[in-house]
Amino acid sequence: MSVDLSTNITYLKGVGPSRAETLGKELDIHTYRDLLYYFPFRYVDRSHLSTISTINEEEPFVVLRGNIRDMHTIATGKSSQRLEALFDDGTGQMVLVWFQGIRWIKELLKPNVTYLLMGKPTYFNGQLQMSHPDIEPMGAASSGHQFLPVYSTTEKGKGKGITSKAITHMVDMLFAQMSGQVEEILPDEAVQHYRLMPRHTALHAMHFPKTATEMQQATMRMKFEELFLMQLDYQFSRNERKRHSQGHQFNVVGDNLNRFFHEKMPFEMTGAQKRVVHEIWNDMRSGRQMNRLLQGDVGSGKTLVALLTMLLAVDNGFQACLMAPTEILATQHYNNFLRMLDGLGLRVALLTGSLKAAEKRTLKQRLKKGEVDILVGTHALIERDVEFARLGYVVIDEQHRFGVEQRAKLWAKSEVAPHILVMTATPIPRTLAMTLYGDLESSVIDELPPGREPVRTIHGTDAKRLQLFDFMRRQIAAGRQVYVVYPLINESEKSDLKDLMDGYESISRAFPLPHYQLSIVHGQMSAEDKSFEMDRFKRGVTHIMVATTVIEVGVDVPNATVMVIENAERFGLSQLHQLRGRVGRGGGASYCVLMTRDDLSKSARERIRTMCQTTDGFKIAEADLKLRGPGDLQGLRQSGLLELKLTDLVDDEPIVRAARDMVGDILQRDPDLTNYPKLRRYLAQHSTHQQWGKIS
Ligand code: ADP
Ligand code: MG
Question: Is the pTM of this model over 0.70?
Fold first, then answer.
């Protein structure tokens, strides 16, 4: 007989409604399954004994063996007291302290009994002590386990008795209370091929491993399960969408494309651009709806790909839109399109938040009547009252700034879902792409336009500032332009803005008018002022652009060859990479100078070192993932990825790969999972993609 894992946790012996409520609220444990999958975050190896004479406060957790020497209560208030006992392990003595449950502890502890003591040692008044340690007689029944699980819990949880020890007890209880085995969920072929530990055994071993090897095997099995089920969810929904979703069919290669190719192409496309454009065109001709991720490092020429594919939509009588994360970028795309499409008679429009109400109204009417072919805009595009006559294609630029939810809103804008292209310049480590975007097709531009030299990256501190200014002067004298960027993590932070203003002052002194012209751009300026300044820099009127990270994404001024990043230690790797991508676009030698304080934290040093060593976006993304973990990566918050409890996306790449390939195999042989009723049931109960299936 197998156990029903969805059984409510209240049915577990010793867990009444009030404990169940705490478990649910504090630890998100509601069912037997939740408890079984609430894995320890580490284990205490009880065979690894410490000695009092050698331990110190640094140690997170120690196990000691010894005797209780002396025990007494001390009054600490009218009705409060504490219990102190002296613990002796033969090498030294330590004070044990209890503030609660005193009567019970007093009865429990006996002299002349050898105890196993576990807890975190601390110093109090120069004396080593431990408060509320776990203590049990040697050879007690529960010490059968060599490894003691340690569970994380919350302060509130602890206050209500949900301690690590209590959780250990509950899990023990659950296994004892189960009348059968936890049913295997992975297909036989997976278990056999990878010689995986059966589910029931593995779950038990995750909590109570007998040996280190068993612990490793159990972990490996649970990682595989976690990744397999996630892949199943992604790949199944992708296949379903492919099989059932209707998409607009763009069969015609018409006038606009032809004329653009023959009259307007500003340069020869790179091999990678050609390949990707064809991948997208093929999708658009297939009759099925496209959902594609386009990855290409900064400066790899994604905009042209967007434009060429948008023209196909227009040639087939549809409207296309491009959504950018900032107004600066949207405006830049719009102006580029106007320039590149000049003379073709296409109707291109720009929709941003700062459009005047009347203009917005007119534009919306034109959109609805189908009088706009290509719409460029910010997230103002996804407002509900923006309606299209025949939206056929949506491009989302720099998607790491858009959440899944926002994408879904766009998809809902036409009866037959439009084709979707999501472009990102923040390269995603391969493992991540496999997991996160298992449900999107993917294209990669892995080649930069010819003549680009990798940007030379240099680390500098204040001592080198004069040298830096000299270098900037020489570059400007050679006709080049310079960015100086200040971190502005929070646009409303006054102190950040002050950094920028102080910096601007000192640069104005070092680069005085009329010989030097400066631009400044930050988030508190009006959109109009921002674009005025951007435009002056773009046209080469100004030599230095002093800015916050508003210029981080996508801004394209090929003549700029120097990027100075102030307080570079405050930026994350992907941001630094994005910023550096603003230079090295014009075919000349380019430089990125990372200015930092002298004393850097370990991780800041590591970031700076990575930047100086490589310009390869994929390598940087992997370093980023290693340094920060996926929780902090932009755009991943809404992904299911953070639900991965065990998998380390960098180190576990082989498992990610194995799970993905096996799911792929199974779905290819048996797309409906006819022979895999358990997997079908799993999907029916757990799929996070149902709504996606409907929308797209
Ligand atoms: P990103 O991929 O970062 O969005 P862009 O589309 O902004 O890159 O392109 C970066 C720069 O490279 C632009 O100035 C663009 O005009 C230029 N570019 C794009 N494709 C080519 C090409 N095939 N040959 C030469 N220059 C190109
Ligand atoms: Mg771009």
Answer: no
